[in-house]
Amino acid sequence: MVRYISDYGLGAREERDDGWRTEALANFPFEIVETRGEDALAKWRELKTAGRGVPVVVGDLDGILEPFSPGYPETLKPVQETLAAAGAIRFPQALAQMRHHRNVAALEMLRKMGDSVDLDDEAFQVREPPLGEWPPSPSVSPGLSVAYDILTHQPLPKVHIVLVPTDDPTSVPAHLHWGDWNECPAPAYHVAALRHWREHYGAELVGLDMDVMNLRVARKPATRDEALELARVQHAYCNDIVDQGTFYLRALAADLMAHNWWYFWWD
Q: What distances in angstroms separate CA 239 from CA 2, 99, 128, one per listed residue?
């Protein structure tokens, strides 16, 4: 199921009342720990060895609660079904097919809404962004961005850490039913991505927000060629980090060689 939504913005969050949040929390089966944004990473490290589950820092709890809100839980796939689907995904080879299917679904939805569209419309084809020049210096590391205010870049006064009772950190998106809206892949693809990048780069999920994922890696790409190939894969996985972010593949590749934090954001 692909959800095309437009109410994930600040306005939607402000409109949610206490009743919505109370019911969503009642459906949310995981332990929640509160801390300050400036302490979030240290607290996450502490909780990793606490034996209470896999911790993930969430800046905006409402965004994480969305799949558990009134009307959603009965439509969610069982976690084991999602994990089985992840096991069948060849990552990153399956990304191109996934993007094609999502584009077709988007076009069909537009047609049902009365818009005149062509399924072969070039505007909806998956394209590689321009390479650009290799930048003289990388951008600033994104770090644990979910613990910071997007406008002021200051630590949030309060963030939440969710503890997911599993021994496999890559399965967290499946347990949280995170994904499958707008351009964001379904949870099974996030699990497959995390498994692949854990094997190749020692990647681990640290932060999740309404539309953001923060990964920290143990190994950065060692050469420009490796970084550029990784940038291509990350663009296929998350178009917006290039199309509305670095704008050029080489700019993203330079960041991947410089930083051990990876940032993904879906519009």
A: 17, 10, 9
**Residue 18 pLDDT level (bands cut at 50, 70, 90):** confident
The 3-class SS string of the chain reads: CCECCCCCCHHHHHHCCHHHHHHHHHHCCCEEEEECHHHHHHHHHHHHCCCCCEEEEECCHHHHHHHHCCCCHHHCCCHHHHHHHHHCCCCCCCHHHHHHHHHHHHHHHHHHCCCCCCCCCHHHCCCCCCCCCCCCCCCCCCCCHHHECCCCCCECCCEEEEEECCCCHHHHHHHHCCCCECCECCHHHHHHHHHHHHHHHCCEEEEECCCEEEEECCCCCCCHHHHHHHHHHHHHHCCHHHHHHHCCHHHHHHHHHHCCEEEEECC
Digit-coded pLDDT (tens) for 97-126? 887 776 776 667 667 777 665 555 555 556
Whether residue 129 is preceded by a cis peptide bond, meaning omega within 30 degrees of 0, is no
In this model, does residue 24 exceed pLDDT 60? yes
Q: What is the mean pLDDT of residues 44-52?
A: 97
The pLDDT value recorded for residue 13 is: 45
Whole-model pTM over 0.90: no
- Confidence check: pLDDT of 12 > 70: no
Q: What are phi and psi of 27, to 5 degrees?
A: -90, -5
pLDDT of 72: 81
CA distance 227 to 98: 23
What tokens were used for 181? 């809206």
